[in-house]
Write a structure and sequence with these properties.
Blueprint: H1 2-24, H2 27-35, H3 69-77, E1 81-84, H4 85-94, E2 103-106, E3 112-115, H5 117-121, H6 123-126, H7 158-163, H8 188-194, E4 212-215, E5 217-218
Antiparallel strand pairs: 1-4, 2-3, 3-5
Length: 219
C-alpha cells in the first residue's frame, strides 16, 4: 500500500514537470510574455527642492550731521524767559513804549531778554485767568468803547493803552496811566496793580506784581 502511494505521488510530480516544460517552452507563450511589462515598484517622488530664504534688505545707517544754523535758530526762538508780569510792563514803559520794536527786560534768573508789545505785553490785558485764578481779562471791563468802559479806559489796543483813562471819547486822550519812562513806579497803572485793586477781584494774598509768566526770548 505504501509503495503504491509513493509511486502515485512520484508519477504526479513527473507529470507536472512535463506539463510545465511544455507550457514554458511554447514559442507563442514566450512572445506574449515578452510584451507583458514586468511590474516594478512605484518610484518615490523626488524630494522637493528647498526654497532659498528671502534675503532681508540691509538697512544702511544714516549718519545725521550736526544741526544746521537754521535749526538752532528755530530752537532758540522757542525758548522764552521767566519774568514777573508787572516788571515786563515796566520794562516796556522804560524802553520807550515801542509798538513794533523790541525792548529789553531782565528775567527772574537775571538773564537779558527781548520782548515785544504785541506778543508779550498786550496779552497781559487780553488773557483771562492770568493775574490770578478766575480773573477776567482786563478788556472785559476796559473795552474799546470808552464811553462804556470802566474809568473810560480801553486796554485792548496799543493806542487805547497810551491814551489813558477818563477819556471823553475814542478820539480824545485822557489821563496818562503809564507814567514817564523814568518814573514808572509812580504811574497810575503801577499803583493800581501793586495795591491789588486791579485786576478787579484780585485776592489780598496775590503776589504784589503779579505772577511769573513766560515771555520774549533770551537776548
Amino acid at each position: 500500500m505504501t509503495k503504491r502511494f509513493i509511486a502515485a505521488v512520484a508519477g504526479m510530480l513527473i507529470l507536472q514537470v512535463l506539463l510545465f516544460g511544455i507550457v514554458w517552452g511554447n514559442p507563442q507563450l514566450k512572445l506574449e510574455r515578452s510584451y507583458t511589462a514586468t511590474p516594478s515598484a512605484t518610484p518615490r517622488p523626488p524630494e522637493p527642492t528647498p526654497l532659498s530664504p528671502t534675503p532681508i534688505p540691509t538697512l544702511i545707517p544714516v549718519e545725521l550731521g550736526a544741526p544746521t544754523r537754521q535749526v538752532e535758530q528755530a530752537a532758540a526762538a522757542n525758548v522764552q524767559c521767566n519774568v514777573v508780569a508787572l516788571d515786563l510792563i515796566g520794562a516796556w514803559v522804560k524802553g520807550g513804549k515801542p509798538e513794533t520794536n523790541l525792548f529789553e527786560f531782565v528775567s527772574v534768573e537775571g538773564k537779558a531778554c527781548l520782548g515785544s508789545f504785541t506778543k508779550d505785553v498786550q496779552p497781559l490785558f487780553l488773557t483771562p485767568n492770568l493775574w490770578f485764578n478766575g480773573a477776567l481779562a482786563c478788556v472785559t471791563c476796559h473795552s474799546s468803547d470808552v464811553a462804556e468802559a470802566a474809568a473810560n479806559m480801553s486796554l485792548g489796543t496799543y493806542t487805547g493803552l497810551l491814551a489813558g483813562s477818563r477819556r471823553t471819547d475814542n478820539n480824545t486822550p485822557g489821563q496818562n496811566v503809564l507814567g514817564d519812562e523814568g518814573a514808572w513806579e509812580k504811574a497810575k497803572l503801577y499803583f493800581m496793580i501793586t495795591t491789588r485793586q486791579m485786576p478787579l477781584g484780585r485776592p489780598a494774598d496775590a503776589l504784589e506784581k503779579g505772577p511769573v509768566i513766560k515771555a520774549g526770548s533770551p537776548k
